[in-house]
Amino acid sequence: MTQKLAIVLQRILVAVTAFSPQISHAELPNDDDTKTVRVFIFAGQSNMVGSDSKAKDIMRFPPFLGLEKPQEKVMFSYSLGREEKRTSNGWVALQPVDQVVGPELSFARKVSQETKAPIAIIKCAAGGTTLGGDWNPDEPSGFKLYPEALKLIQASLAELDQKKLPYRIEGFMWHQGENDMFSNEFKPNYGKNLKNFLARWRSDLKAPNLRFYIGELCTKTIWGMDNRENMYAIREGQKAVTESDPLAEYIPTSHDAVEIGGGEGLHYHYGTLGQLEHGVNYADAYLRTIGKEQTHEQTHERPLKIWPYGKGSTVKLFVLAGHRNMEGERAFKQELEALGDDKVLANDNDKIAFKYSIGGGFKTSNGWEPLGPAGFYDTFGPELSFGSTLQNKMTDNIAIAKFTHSGSQINDWTPQGTKAKERNLYPQLIAFVQESILELQAKGHQVELAGIFYHLGENDMAFGPYRNAAAKWLQSTVVQSRQDLAIPSLKWFVSQQRPTDEKGLNKIDVTEHLAALAAADPLLVHWKAFDLPAQREKLVITTGGIVWLGTFLAESYLERFSKLGSKERP
Description:
Layout: H1 3-18, E1 37-44, H2 46-49, E2 71-80, E3 86-87, E4 92-94, H3 104-114, E5 119-125, H4 145-162, E6 167-175, H5 190-204, E7 212-215, H6 223-226, H7 228-244, E8 248-251, H8 271-289, E9 314-322, H9 324-327, E10 349-358, E11 363-364, E12 369-371, H10 383-393, E13 397-404, H11 426-442, E14 446-455, H12 464-484, E15 492-497, H13 510-520, E16 524-529, H14 543-562
Parallel strand pairs: 1-5, 1-6, 2-5, 6-7, 7-8, 9-13, 9-14, 10-13, 14-15, 15-16
Antiparallel strand pairs: 2-3, 2-4, 10-11, 10-12
């Protein structure tokens, strides 16, 4: 036998064994089966690679401590990069590659905690690549990643066969599309190309029931502003596929954290924290498909066992709204213990009813809950110290309703919205406020809407066109909300952290714009939250600062009304 013929036969053998898993993929997973290896495929471009993340930064984020270490029981096979690839050359223990953090780390830990079956992950990803070209299964161009990934998967599965390990290909996690949006050819055809991509994988892997988990392009990045319509086109293509394919699911990620960049602070990548949250999104979605409900709404029930207000009494309703810092992106409940007297905020307060929709509806309360840490990924917002401060200084019945989306910008909150229609939040905000009022009234209470407390968009302040239009956009929302809620005297309390200090942006005096808006509207109050504790990075406020912000808002409100007539006092 010639050497050439031997190589050909070996390739055929590898292909045959790779497509012969020990268990049919059509069968439903069985949690009692602790022998079969569950194989997950991760693929995409830079936000799947983990670009601009750092394993050493994991220690800054309490919910994810320990993920910088190898997960010895999880098998990992990978090929990352384009010209200079980083490859595992077979199966190794799951761990960061060259100190880069990918979503597979948190995914594996979360799934391992919920199942007893062994896990294996195959990952092929490279930044700056397109579905229309590099990942095109029919005519791959550029770095030809489809055949590269197929080869990696085949070789990895063949090695499992050689080890006589039974396995099943359990799911395919895909995050990609940012580069297709810059092509006039690829952008309008993204949905069509994605549909073909999924079909080819199922065919080539002989797994007709292979499930796909399609990660949303994150709108919190700079591209969520300066390429808003392009991003929308790709997301529409993704949704068209996931809505028509029962085995494909769209995974929201715009609420996840994003790396803080230099200069103005904006970035293109999730970075360390965002990647870890990104992985949890996939894990929760996968666990749902095997009957282990892991939606954020169901991970921790927080019932309000005894209604805190007397029958027929008046309830003063405070509505909190905003973006990254009102949501509490980087404030972790584990860190409250280090804040001395403020550690009590980690406990549920059953004297204040709390209702919320955060992350653009990614997590919603189960009716009214006790005020307490309720954010996704063990986070919380300024509502904790806000409610506590008001409770200590007021005799009124207090209820708090919080509506946020950290992946939004101010124009998403305007009545007119933008061409990225699925990001229009204004109708949801109005419906949320109305629903909150009606629910309290249904319990027999008179409801006094104290006002809407809105913390100004942080990302908007770091992008010139948005910074310049911020006051105008805000005004349109304020004016229309009074009409749509039929409350002409509705008060808006707008807080503003110190805007990004960057030479080009400083030409736009957004603080003066907001002050002028407040001066012209006696029912709009502008508060400068400029004395925040020092923060490590631009834009985002961490645990101590979030506690400070809530206290500041409450004290500013109390001080404001202490100077008014008795009819307007809280």
